[in-house]
Hints:
By secondary structure, the chain is α/β, with parallel strands linked by helices. The chain has 3 domains: 7-87 and 171-199 and 364-417, ATPase, nucleotide binding domain (Nucleotidyltransferase, domain 5); 90-170, Dna Ligase, domain 1, CATH 3.30.1490.110; 204-362, Nucleotidyltransferase, domain 5 (2-Layer Sandwich). It is built from 13 helices and 19 strands. The strands form 5 sheets. It has a 6-stranded mixed β-sheet with strand order 11-6-1-2-3-19, with helices on both faces. The longest helix has 24 residues, at 296-319. Mean pLDDT is 92; it is low at 397-419. It binds adenosine-5'-triphosphate and magnesium ion (MG). Residues 11, 13, 85, 193, 217, 337, 377 line the site of magnesium ion (MG). Adenosine-5'-triphosphate is lined by residues 13-16, 50, 85, 217-220, 240-242, 245, 260, 263-264, 267, 337-339, 341-342, 374. Self-interacts. Interacts with FtsZ. It comes from Candidatus Mcinerneyibacterium aminivorans. It holds the Pfam family FtsA. It is found in: Cell membrane.
Amino acid sequence: MEEEKIVMALDLGSQSIKGLIGGLDENGNIEIKGKGEISCNVGNCGISSGLIKNLELTTNNIEKVISSAEAHFGKKIEEIWVGFSGRHVDGLNEHGSVVVSGRDHEISQDDIERVTVQAKTKVEPLPETRKVIKEIPRWFKIDGEDKIKKPIGMSGIKLGVKMHLLLANTQQIKNIEKCVNKVGVYLNDIIPNPLASALAVKDKDASELGCIVIDMGAGTTDIAVYVEDALFYTDVLDIGGNIVTKDIATVLRTPRNKAEEIKREYGTAFLDDYVDGEEMFEVPSVGGRKAREITREELCAIIRPRIEEIANIIYSKLKNTTINFQRDLGAGIILTGGMANLHGFDKLLEQIFDLPVAKGIPKGVDGLDVKKPEYSSSVGVLKYGLEHYDEYYKRGLFEDVPTFIRTVKDFFNNLFENK
Ligand SMILES: Nc1ncnc2c1ncn2[C@@H]1O[C@H](COP(=O)(O)OP(=O)(O)OP(=O)(O)O)[C@@H](O)[C@H]1O
Ligand SMILES: [Mg+2]
């Protein structure tokens, strides 16, 4: 019997590091078999705005998350796939073309690889600080025929590709590698979170019609746009829910953790029939002063301008591309990440973009519960790992390595346990 493919995905978030272990069930759905999470106060995860700011803290937290997911799963894992974000992540479109090599001009995997490399070299030489992390073919062109998704086996003289390249900062990637290596598991792949979140929440219909996926977490906002069933645009803003919490704390002069609670419990970006704007709630003060009461409408007046500001940044960025909102984005916006839980955020986006907005919850997952917007990136990384699983092993890069690393890790673990 074929060995079950198991993937562990880790999402290096600014508020929480989330780890999921999963495989595919008989229906092709992802079954979540292990789950670990560490939630931190601002800056305490070692990660801020998607960037690793404290290697030791991040390493310790990664280790804790892996251990608790393993405890759930009941087995040790040896390799992980990591989702990451940060302002240094962005995307661009390139194209390439090659002459089909085979004798009968039948397109093979080798031609696909050559044309991919050809498109990738168009952005080279890159500065030492930049690196192509993922090359996503948008579609292929065979001779005059455009928009072909699966060219292998087809006949043609000239093969072209339109590609979306995702780039990131080399040092940030090295920091991820350092943390994972210290934990003693093998880093199988890294997946930029705009891509991961989109993979988790959009379905085929949405990408065919065209959609914007926005994942707003605590410290970053990841953006991915699909046009004509292909990834067209990716970007990351280094701003997210933390700034809203900070605004609440500053204006209401209340501690950050209380502001966070208030945002989650009473926060709204848009007053509608589901919210009683007159509803009063208590705001704890600092410095021994007496608590006060304010209304949800007053809270909305603090939250809304910041959300509008972020939405307007995204709007302007996308308006500066060739995307035509009404023509290319039939499925509108899919809003995900923890901040998608904020009441009224979807309605405000609807107004600003004049597009329909849906809340993005991970699709096609069973087992342990991850059907919440904050799990989109981790589920997407898991999905990516499972979809590309065979490729990692075909490349022959990882044979024996995980076992070796695990053995070394076990050796050190035993050493400490025996002390
Ligand atoms: N019910 C809620 N109402 C309002 N905001 C919420 C709610 N639940 C979570 N959030 C906000 O979502 C954010 C955390 O989301 P998430 O877990 O997706 O972030 P992260 O992945 O750790 O960070 P990032 O992706 O930015 O690096 C926080 O700002 C939190 O306050
Ligand atoms: Mg996130």
